[in-house]
Amino acid sequence: MTTPWAEIKRRRPLSKQGRREYQLTRLGIDIADQVRALRATRRISQGKLAERIGASQLTVVRLESGEKVPSLRMLANVAEALDADLTVRVTARGS
Questions:
Q1: Domains of the chain, with CATH numbers?
Q2: Which of 26, 30, 48, 87 has the most CB atoms less than 10 A away?
Q3: Does pLDDT of 79 surpass 90?
C-alpha cells in the first residue's frame, strides 16, 4: 500500500533550511508559470522573447522551467518585453 504524500510530510517535517529551499523552488515555479502564460497570451515565441530581452533562448527556457528564481533585473526586462507591469510584494506570514 502506498503512503499518501500528506502523511509522509506530516511524519517527516522539513528542517528550516528545507522549508526555505521549498519556498524558493515554489517561487521559481510560480514565476515560470506566470511568464509562460503571459508569453503565450501575447503569442510571442521563446526566441522572440529572448531577442527582446537580449538573452539566449536557453535563458528563456530555463526561466520558464522554474529552474531557479530570476533576478529582479531579469524580471523587469521580461515584463517590459511582454508589455506588462512587474509587481513585487512582501507580506507578513499568515496574511
A1: 16-81 (1.10.260.40)
A2: 48
A3: yes
Return the closest-CA partner of residue 78 out of 68, 51, 43, 25.
Answer: 51
Cα end-to-end distance, the chain, whole Å: 38
pLDDT digits over 22-43, tens only?
A: 888 889 999 999 999 999 999 9
CA distance 42 to 37: 9
pLDDT of 82 > 90? The answer is yes
Q: Is the dihedral of CA 19, 20, 21, 25 positive or negative?
A: positive
Of 30, 38, 17, 40, nearest to 69 by C-alpha is 30
Please check whether residue 82 is in contact with residue 38, taking contact to mean a CB–CB distance below 8 angstroms: yes
